[in-house]
């Protein structure tokens, strides 16, 4: 095996590690949307109004308690509304499966990584446009934006390595 092949193999391993971690995060994020009512109940017990953390961070405590009450009341009267969260969870899982392509052949499927980076960047305008319309506090919109900012970092690193791989593998499609 020559030096180019060794470097390409090393880069492929790193891309797989990065994409594997990203997929795990997407899957975990997705499956946590299914038991949303129960998770908010726990979060309210830990951080909501009337807790030690809620006293330290009163705006956050009030917000968590409000969201918890909203979910409980909505779920009690209209449980079918939770179906929207089920679709959110499903979307995360479907997006995670798209990364099988670059896992298998990173150079030919680099567009999936680009798609992921565009999705991460798109979180920011969504949070700042829809957040105020829906009454979401600014600090919560910033937390939502952090998922896009943090998510784009590993994808950018993977994309950088895929570009390097494309140079080392002549003859492959170079839409990079």
> Approximately what portion of the residues adopt beta-strand conformation?
under 5%
- The H-and-E topology, N to C, reads as HHHHHHHH
Alpha-carbon distance between the two ends: 25 Å
Overall geometry: elongated
Radius of gyration: 20 Å
The largest sheet, given as strand count, sense and whether it forms a barrel, is:
none
Note the total helix count.
8
Low-confidence stretches: none
Mean pLDDT: 94
State the helical fraction.
Answer: over 70%
Structure class: mainly alpha
Question: How many strands?
Answer: 0
Protein model, in words:
The structure is a single chain. This protein starts with a helix and ends in an 8-residue tail after the last helix. It is elongated. The protein has a domain at 3-33 and 82-168. It has helices at residues 3-31, 36-47, 52-56, 58-77, 83-98, 100-104, 110-133, 138-168. It is 81% helix and 0% strand. α2 packs antiparallel against α4 (58-77) and α7 runs antiparallel to α8 (138-168). With 176 residues, the protein is mostly helical. The longest helix has 31 residues, at 138-168. The mean pLDDT is 94.
